[in-house]
Amino acid sequence: xxxxxxxxxxxxxxxxxxxxxxxxxxxxxxxxxxxxxxxxxxxxxxxxxxxxxxxxxxxxxxxxxxxxxxxxxxxxxxxxxxxxxxxxxxxxxxxxxxxxxxxxxxxxxxxxxxxxxxxxxxxxxxxxxxxxxxxxxxxxxxxxxxxxxxxxxxxxxxxxxxxxxxxxxxxxxxxxxxxxxxxxxxxxxxxxxxxxxxxxxxxxxxxxxxxxxxxxxxxxxxxxxxxxxxxxxxxxxxxxxxxxxxxxxxxxxxx
Length: 255
What we know:
Helices cover 69% and strands 3% of the residues. By secondary structure, the protein is mainly α. A hairpin with a 2-residue loop joins strand 1 and strand 2 (99-102).
């Protein structure tokens, strides 16, 4: 099933990371995230080592640093939350630049920022080297329930269709002189949302009937060979394996 549109997160390429099967990359990112979360917050050097590993993956995938930095904006809510923790935290306090901050709050803020940042960067690299539709096929190969995968596929396929319909409805309203300025215009927006829901529901019914008429039995056909070789699994799992080695050293107290 084609997505039918270009995704800004994905960077087309032919690097060794791009060529890896999606199930390998999904499992590698999941394992890496688990290792990062399990790392004691006091092991600063371990987090630096994880960042180096991600940097090596980005270099191998030829993903520019600017591409990663621009998409890390999604982390801003976590950053704002982490910044507030030392201010409102309880317990022992220290003075930093004239501000009284909680020691435990500072540790918690560092823990959130370090682990969330590494997880976000790993996810960005996954999205940059794998098309969204292919990621879902990889999840299917990892035995994620077929129904969930199909729901996500249709959401991905028809999201832009529904957004285009929303834009057309907005243009139609504005061409008739309507402009939402205050709460009195909420009923008009609500009616538009209701009409959009009905159209989307009816489109879903038509698509489902069309699929049934073409022999749909609950499973979507996989057109491409998604099998992974031992070498590909080894390449993909090099990231979590390196992270696990770092975790082992940190737990052993060698940091």
